[in-house]
Amino acid sequence: MISESSSFVKGMVLGGLFCVFVTLIGHIKMGHGTKAQHHEHHHIQAPNKEDVSNLSEGERMELSHSIRVYCIILVKPKDLGNWAAVKETWSKHCDKAEFYSSESVKVFDSVVLNTNDVWMMVRNAYKLAYERYKDEYNWFFLAHPTTFAVIENLKYFLLKKDASQPFYIGHTVKSGELEYVDDDGGIVLSIESLKRLSKIFEDPDKCPEQGGLIWKLSEDKQLAVCLKYTGVFAENAEDSEGKDVFNTKSVGSLIKEAMANHPQQVVEGCCSDMAITFNGLAPNHMHVMMYGVYRLRAYGHNFKDALVFLPPAGSDND
Amino acid sequence: MREARPLRPPHLSLSLPSSACTPGWMGSGRPWHRGPQLCQGPAQSWGDWGGGGIAPVPLMLFPRPGEVSTTAAELYSKVRILCWVMTSPSNLETKARHVQATWARHCNVVLFMSSVQDDGFPAVGLDTKEGRDQLYWKTIRAFQYIHQHHLEQADWFLKADDDTFVVLDNLRWLLANHTPEEPVYFGKRFKPYAKQGYMSGGAGYVLSKEALRRFVEGFRTQVCSHTTSVEDLALGQCMEKMGVRAGDSRDAAGRETFHPFGPESHLTGKFSKSFWYWKYCYYPIVEGPQCCSDLAISFHYVNPELMYTLEFLTYHLRAYGYRYRYQPPLPENAARLLQRQGRPKAANATLLVQGTKKL
Predict the structure, then answer these.
(1) Is B260 contained in some domain?
(2) Do A303 and B318 touch (CB under 8 A)?
(3) A251 and B313: CB-CB below 8 Å?
């Protein structure tokens, strides 16, 4: 009897030790080469009111100018309608916006990438953006031409976030162990993340050009894998009420869902007042959003904002 | 201390304390910014039910977090608008319900006018039949009903369809520059068939108290009668006969505020040159972004999904810190109404055309 139970105990102890050993190995492999914080909750919030009160006009202007956003919009010739709409609408509010196209198109200027593969487009766009603009912008926003973005709300969201820290922000999705930013909602990288990304691009084992091991990963998942190796983790962006600010669907779709799911509180429950992106918009809808965000308002409601953004020159739809 | 409750319900409460000025609470338990008239209006007397159901007094919507001024609240109490929505029994749940859940909440008083009374909705029964040919009958009866039961509750009287979206705060902005004693009405001005023009029914139109009095008087004395079922034209003709002026509702930059179509059509559509619209508009049509004022008052042919979308875009989503190009000066009469320092009339609307140089 005693010998059996002692065997049992030995077995348990050995098994436990083995388990711990294997787990440790796993952790070491994952955390290799980084000392980055593993963000505990992977959610990131907009600034609170306390962060933003009591600034002079001069301080507000200075603060507003210190957040510089470079926009990368990935396009293909088939996206011409949306490309035009993005060019005429929200991209004018980026500090600089450039269109990175799979191939050259007569009608519009673009940075030509000479590849149809979306992951290659993403890689090359980020590489080029980093090489050219690493000293001029501190935040890099990547989007598709079906996305509508409110850059002012992005800047508000980034207020008080240090771009020399590795930020990788958007609408996150969990796929097994991997948490990644869904590129349909737009991807935000700080200059530090972009710097690390540029380095890991040179490592064909960790960040191959050909995508995943057995089957090809989507480009947004692939990006997350590469970034993870550099210690950069995806964070889901939310407002002070916990609502997503990067949306992978259009306002119309979200409203429709709200009408079905909580018909008593459609408008109040649908989306964030400080939303940064919506996706799945046709060109005409971009023009309506432009009007709805930058012009249409109810008279008599004024806000004391910490930042000041003036309308861009040479534009009349905002 | 009120307990925290989830997102503010848009429905209207039938039982009112005599002065309910309790602040609301956001879901997270933080109080909204408080201001003077940010509470339920004074209790209305329910005695005069007239012929049918009456809508309870809508709650004044609380300001959003970070909002600092009470201008909208002041205008709410000083420019009182009664809204009546033309609807029908079959449209109550499919259309009128969404109006009730969105822009109608911003009216001082709202009435849903149907052919049949419905106590549950609630809707007033005008005792007519339904159909396009009944529109003017319904309109006449509706205004008579309002004149009889609700005249003292408002200064201005707005008619809209159940597929019209209205921004009440912008309507108050327009009307603040006038008085309810003026015989005037506003809307999207059309020109044919009437010397001073008439207002499109679908885009919504608003009568001053004096205009309403004259309309009802016109029918009493038979100066006005049911000439045609084309409601907006017929009303316009009656207005003209009764000396009520067709007002100019354009903003300080000359842009239209009442719109007979949806925002997508006006902003992006190119109307074909043979389209009737070109011949109807009293003022020159502008296509593209300048079609529409920033302080738009109405859009038409708005389905339920778009109703909520527009409410979201008007009252919720905004670009943080953005300085709007259109910064209209406060006109003299409005300044007096709000007891503020107004700028002289000569000052034109300042449109910021030169933005900041890009960094």
Answers:
(1) yes
(2) yes
(3) yes
Question: Strand pairing partners for B244?
Answer: none
Work out the percent of chain B whose per-residue pLDDT is above 90.
63
- Tell me the two tokens of residue A142: 């990547």
Contact yes or no for A313 and B355 at CB 8 A: yes
Query: Tens digits of per-residue pLDDT, A111-140?
Result: 999 999 999 999 999 999 999 999 999 999
- Do the domain assignments include residue B60? no
What is the residue-wise DSSP string for A156-218?
Answer: HHHTT--TTS--EEESEEEETTEEEE-GGG-EEEEHHHHHHHHHHTT-TTTS-TT--SSSPPP
Let me know if residue B40 belongs to a domain. Answer: no
| Residue A190 structure tokens | 């700080």
Q: Which two tokens stand for residue B149?
A: 């039961």
The amino acid that residue B215 corresponds to is F
User: 3.30.70, 3.90.550, 3.30.1400, 3.40.50: which CATH number matches A43-294?
Assistant: 3.90.550
Domain borders along chain A are 43-294
| Residue B305 belongs to a domain | yes
Domain that holds residue B312: 70-317
Q: Min CA distance, A177 vs chain B (Å)?
A: 31
Interface contact flag, B167 A295, Cβ < 8 Å: no
Residues of chain B contacting residue A316, judged by C-beta atoms under 8 Å apart: 289-290, 353
- Name, in order, each residue with C-beta under 8 angstroms of A143's C-beta and a sequence gap of 6 or more: A71, A72, A73, A74, A149, A183, A186, A187, A277
pLDDT band per the 50, 70, 90 thresholds, residue B194: confident
| CATH code where residue B243 lies | 3.90.550
What is the ipTM, given to two decimal places?
A: 0.85
Low-confidence ranges of chain A (pLDDT < 50): 27-41
Our count of domains for chain B comes to: 1
Token output for A277? 């992106």
Indicate the pTM of the whole model.
0.83
Residue A309, token pair as written in the block: 């953004």
ω before B263 within 30° of 0 (cis)? no
pLDDT in tens, B64-121: 777 887 889 999 999 999 999 999 999 999 999 999 999 999 999 999 999 999 999 9
Residue A156 at interface with chain B, using a CB cutoff of 8 Å: yes
Confidence of residue B349 (pLDDT cuts 50, 70, 90): very low
Instruction: Give residue A1's pLDDT.
Output: 57
